[in-house]
Every structure is written in structure tokens, then in C-alpha cells.
Amino acid sequence: MSNPKFLHLTKAVVYLVATVVFLSTSLTYASTTINQGSFSTSFSPELIYRRAYIDLRKDAIYFKDDYRNFADQLYLSFKFSKSFKYINEVVFDPVIRTPKLNPTNDLELVVAQAYAHFFTTKNIFFSVGKKLEFDGSGFLINPSDLLNQDKDIYDPLKQREGKFFTRIGFQSDLITSSISFIPKRDSSVEDFSILSKNYFELFGMDTSVQYMFNRTEKSTFGLSMNKFWNDFIETHVDGRYQTRQKRPDTSYSVQEPERDFTDKALSDSSVYVVGGLRLVLSSKRSLVLETIYKESGLDEEQTVNFLEDEKRRKRIAKASVNPPTTIIGRNYVFLAYNDEDTIKKMKFTTSWLYNILDKSSFINIDIDYKVSPIVSMGLSPMFNIGSKNTEFGESYLKNVCYLTLKATF
User: Fold this and answer.
1) How many domains does one find in the chain?
2) Which of 128, 220, 252, 361 is the most exposed place for a label (fewest CB within 10 A)?
3) What is the CATH number of the domain that holds 89?
4) Strand ranges (DSSP E) for 120-264?
């Protein structure tokens, strides 16, 4: 009988080789459509080792019996890029990493990015493959970023994997516009989305307008605007309007953890808005204050009902369900302070996310010290504070402290 792990690894290697050949061919084609010029190639591996010391809530809904009070996580990237005339590029980034929800399991191999981006004329460009890109003016959450609606806001290591799409776009000095075809992961070829992105300046404000259409989820609109009023004050707004809610997962499947965090009907529309202010205290020191309103989010009573539903899911599946990777409530305040100026070679960031309705909080502190040009060390304590049946009070991580070593070559 064949070994499943060997077959999985073989498929992964074949996929990686095929992707490299395809992307290299794409860039070679791009080079022949433009005036001849020189190529530049870079190989920039990165190693991140993270040790977590965890204070667990064993009575929390999302606790799993195999969780321990410590975990070792590895993230090893082998990023290769090849550019032509600075504006055309091929990127291939295979990654070996520890699974987030099962850090005691074997390492997994994923392709974080594998794409080609090239101009066929002065203004027309194409992108194809799996690419990482973020949009929006918010500092923690960007509802207007329609490509990354499932972004894990709590773990930076899970924010490094791109999305598959094929794109054609137009770029000029006044506007950049594009249309993308986005297949839905692990779904039929018929289930896809069309995304339009438009970037321009409006009354002195950097503006992004997005529109996404999916046959099932219908239309979603995104808007992001920000402006510096002087050297010290920046304001921003980032939001989206969706004409229909996402499909809820009623299968109670542990393998499909995405649920519908709303009491709204599928046909209901809703808005999701972040508004904020940034005070620039110095060139390397700033303070951010944001308010977050998610119309489809849960109020205090609905949060309790949702968590009770999660308990039922856990009983029916006879296994632990995975925790949400984004906020589930309705009203929040977010406060952050960033300082790269007080101590030489050290970056200090602290943030506080407060659920106004159920009065629970998520606090994060990041301290990063540059040991050498290629090596840095980090200390990141996190705290989930709240009573029973509150958003952060039901996190299985009561407190966690990460010790991180990062080397970029």
C-alpha cells in the first residue's frame, strides 16, 4: 500500500516544479514584449523560530485536549524573485511551517506566493498566480480589503499566504484600475468571484474603491480613504457594504471551520466600517485610535447564543471546533502605540482591542530588537481578558508569551 505522506510530498514537489516553469516562462514572454533590458535575480530566505509559553483556559469552548502550555513554531521561507526593468517580476516563495492549530504535528509545506506580474505595454499589466497583497487604511482591520476577508488578524505568521487570482489592469499617473478572476479555494470551478480595484486621489485623499461579485454572495463594495492634514495628523476611514450575508456553515464539520458570525438573514445587507485618527508624535513614534462598527456582528446576548451554538457544534462533531480568526462582535475601540525612537535598534508596539458590548479585551505587546543586520529577537506577550461567554473570555489562550528569533538572509 502506498504511503499517503509520500504521495502528498510527491504531489507538492510536482506542483512546485510546474509552477516554477510556468512563472519563468511568463516572465520570459514579458521580456520579449518590451524593449530589451537586464534581469535581476534575488534569493532571500527567512527563518522564524517562535516559542510560545501559554496559560490555557481548559474550560473554554475552543480548548483542545492535546494543547500544551508551550509550543514551538517554525516558519522557513525560500523566497525567489526575478525582475525585469523593475516593474515585471516573477516570485516563488515555498514555505515550511508548523500548523497553527496543531503545532505538535508534522511540518507542512505550502507555497505562500507563486505569481508573475508584467506589463505588456506602458499602461497595461497582467498578474497571474498566488500573490500576497493587502489593501486598506485601517491598522488592525480593513473591511474594504475584499480579497482578504478571511484574514487572521491575531497571528502575523498566518498573514503571509497569498490568494490565487488572474488579473488584467491599467495604470496611469491618475488612476490604477484592475479586474481579477478569483477561484474559490477547495471548491468547484463554477464558484468564483470577480473583483474590481481602483486607486486614485480624490480631493487630496488617497482613495481605493473595490467591487466584488460572487454568484452566491452577490455584490460587495469596499471604500478606503485617508489623508494627512499636516505633519502630525492623519485620518482614515475603511469600510464595506455587502448586499447579502455569507453562507453559514451548517454541516458541523471540524474540517470546515468557517461559520456565519451573525444573526442576520442571508438576504440582509450590512455595513462594516473602521474610522480612525493617527497622531504622529515624531518620525518614529505614533498613536492610533480607531472605532469599529460591524452591523452584522453580535451584540452581548447574541454572543452568548453564538457561543452556546459552538458548544453544540463541539458535541455533535465530538471534537473541538476551531476559534474565529476575526472579530465576531458589533462595536469596538482599538488603540495602538508604536515607538521606534526611544531605544536604539528596538521597536515597541502595543495595542488594545475592546469589545464595547461584552466588555472583553485583547491586548498585544510586541518588542523587537535588532541584534545584527540580519538577526532580530522578539518578545510578544498577549492577553485575552473577559468573563465567561464573552468573545475574548472564551479564548483558549488566557495569556501567551512568544519568544521569537528571526533571521533574514
Assistant:
1) 1
2) 252
3) 2.40.160.10
4) 124-131, 163-171, 175-183, 192-202, 205-214, 218-228, 233-242
